[in-house]
Amino acid sequence: MKKLLIPVFCLSLFAVSCGKTEEDTTAPEILSLSVETNEVSAGGTLIVKADNKDETALNQLKLNIHDRFDGHGHEKIAGVPWEEVRVIDLDGKEYFVTENFDVPDNATAGPYHVIAQLVDGEGNTSDFKEVDFWVYNSDMALITVLSPDLTIEPYYAIDDTLNFAGSIADDEEIAEITVIVKSFTGTTYYEQDIDLEGQNITNYDLSTLPSLIFNESDFGPNHVHLEMEVIAIDNDGNINEVKGNLHYN
Amino acid sequence: MALKRLLVALLSLWGSVSFAQNPLLGLVLNEKTKEPVPFALIEFGHAHQRIIADTAGRFELNVHETEFHLHIQAIGYQHFHAEVELQSDTLVAYLIPDNYLIQEVTVSVERKSAATSQSSTTVLTDRSELAQNWSPSLAQTLSFIPGVNSINTGVGIGKPVIRGLSGSRIQVNDNGIKQEGQQWGADHGLDIDPFSVEEIEIIKGANALAYGSDATGGILNLRPATLPDEKFSSSANTLYQSVNNAFGASASSTIKNESTWLTLRLSGQSFGDYKVPADTFIYNSFILPIENEQLVNTAGHQYSGQLTTGLSAGKHDFSARMSYFEQKVGIFPGAVGIPRAYQIADDGDRRNIALPFQHNKHVRFSGHHHYHGENFQWITDLGFQNNDREEQSFPDAHGITPDEDNTQALALDLSTASLNSRTYFYSGSNKLQVGIQGEFQRNEIGGFEFLIPEYRRTLGGLYFLNEKSTKRGSINFGVRTDVVHYNAEPFFQPIYDIVNDEIVPVDSRQRSYAAAQYNFGLSAAFGWMHHWSDQWVSRMNIARTFRAPNIAELAANGVHHGTFRHEVGSWENTPEVGYQLDVEITHSRRNWQFQVSPFFNYFTNFIFLRPSAQFSPLPEAGQLYIYEQAPAIHSGTEAQVTWLPNATEKVSVGLDYIYAFNLDENLPLPFMPPLSGLISWEKEWHLHFLGTEDWKTDFGYRYTAPQNNVDRNELTTPGYSLLHLAVGNEWNLNSGTLGLRLEARNVLNNTYLNHLSRYRFLNLPEPGRNIAAQLYWRL
Q1: What is the pLDDT of residues B620-665, one digit of tens each?
Q2: Chain B closest CA to A97's CA: distance in Å?
Q3: H or E element that contains A216
Q4: Chain A residues within 8 A (CB-CB) of chain B?
């Protein structure tokens, strides 16, 4: 009954410090979350590492592997995206976890992430932590970008014209192609969304894309650091992406 | 305070003349309405003896003089002085009502429902007061009353909270029948058209024995309006709100003759995404955009209709009511799972309702019979209702539905048949109420997610409540027994996979087991109301309450959309037993009143969701939250001061505070509202403008303190202030009365977080500045 006495005495209207608890309400923390390599192939292994800590006692770590295809330019999730949940028991105040995941052979290629969350012995949960990775497989469309030459981070002057060159090839069919050129601050200067679903196209020539002219009126007088993304989705939903940097002025 | 000459003398014509030894029987009446003035203070004679009239305005004087000075006073009336020349042994004094509004402020004895004890802490409000605080959800509309709050999911969905308690701890009676709409769910709103509410009696805390055993937090009793005198009456309301481009309209008509009447009401509302005064919010250390400062997919609409008819035949009154309510409200996409920037991008349409959304329908049929006997009343209510809820969204995970286009996430179909019958026996100053209640309920489920199983529930209750008027108040005592029986079905959730290019079930997960629970419980209450003088009134209640666990507390096993928590019930949970004490003290003067209502509850085994140290194995869920029980203390108070400096102004200050924690861990109970205060000033101006005078203005300032008393994993919420202004008036035209009210809420466009919002965990701010206009008309 001793426990009851203290709260009963706390019943003044403005009791604030009364009822102060020695219970642990401090959330545990995932100090770091990483993947050994952020590109894995279907049939391969994804190695996830997490460094976890808590004030009193860690209890579990939940790793959730999920696709992040939505927001990558298509509506329906075709194919068989890889989804896996693993709950790992922990103990102690600090625990370093290394977990191996077998990437399924039939996993759809594309962008994925690992979402991790911790819970301690009292039930306090940590914030989520995420790390992104890509799954590649042999079915996905292959992208070759010749112009611009993204390996050298090319510079373009005012009024230059960028003529795209390269190709996208797939065994079965290319369903959708997206080409974006945008700045790191989020401004999109060039975007082409090409829907090829049902047209049985297995080869796409990038030179058919409209050219990008570096007008001063669009880009301004100053230097802009740009990012180019070419995304190709095949009829099975496999997503492949090539990214690179270029500069204006 | 002029000396009033003897209206009393007129009555000397009655009865025989007798003197002195016999007690003088007196009666105090309202001069205008001829209704009794209860608890009037009577002072008489040289010795200035004082007595107080009873609930029927009656008093007895033992006087030895034939001439004496009589002074009577009562709140809301002008003082009465008279030099009495005794000429009979009965005396009637007519008190003239004051122009001041304080009468309306005092909850008068007559206005409480017959089933409500005089000792209970009750607030009465009606349509005109609700219209001053209008919001699409009824629960939100009521939150201007100290001690009353609402848990909101966006703007259209709200559930009532009384003293921090909600869900199945609050019972809503709609015209005699308990509203059954899966109220255990925190994002399950009250499916009642706010336009249809005529009068509400809000009973806070214990001593609601006559209404049900569950309602340990309180009761919202929606009562029908008294019928107008005219053969035909009609009214219409329209309104507009800028914060979400909301349009609403409601129209009602009543026809009546000698013994029958018919009322029809139709209402509709449509609102768009609501504006907030922020263009980003932070969740899990990510800064996410709020495009155009509008929360995408928070639009909605609702339609409803009620048809009521009645018949009086001698000692019998009958009425029947049919009502329909339908609502479709969008859920902010970021609230389902972890919010991503692409999900919450502006979809270009402010009014569309896209996935995810809630779609609810509620149908009710009810019948009412009232028999007026000699010293006896018998009232029976019979009802049937169906609550059909649906949550629509894309499946979060693969393998839970064979059809990738299926978006019916959860469907709950609840049918309930209810019967209440009670009798009132009057004898002398005693009123004995005996009642029985019964309910049969069946729940069916659908959708690719699982939360609660299919079940049948039977409730039965029997109670006795005796109220005795004393010289200065009343005492009541009641006992109630309840039986509650739940019977739930097992459920196996299929798991699908692609086999030979076809999606087929390959396995299943058992989400619920066949189970039953039978409970028998006892509740009791004692209440005492006393008028210490014409200025001081105290009300006190002590009760033992019993609440059987609801279906979620017993058998939940799933992720509730928008919480990311996997909630799990347990058939081991036992009924919640509570010991409650509440007190209300009112001090009234001629033009001001002070009221304070502290309460203290001790629950031996309070049921609440506790975060466990385990994660859910389900992919779309985080932690397991388990319905556990622990002893808990739930206490707090409301306080209110109302001042009428003159006949055209009213100032009131209200405050409410809760202090609740579980005794197991000394951690606060979750989802409790913080300390909050509201100052309001109403004034009627003698100002001739736009063809009418008496423009009314309203000024409101609400301060809500930070909520730092939180449970584990619950976010604290900073404090905030809100300013509201309104102006309105009415025009008396040949074709009826036309009214206009213009309002600005959150005038300063403050960015604030509401601790009781379902979107709080995303750090989403509440609606910004809102300009509202109401145009109403009545015949």
Answers
A1: 788 899 999 999 999 999 999 999 888 788 899 999 999 999 999 9
A2: 17
A3: helix A216-219
A4: 3-4, 7-8, 10-11, 13, 15, 19-21, 23, 25, 27, 59-60, 62, 64, 66, 68, 70-71, 76-77, 80-81, 83, 85, 87, 115, 117, 119-125, 127-128
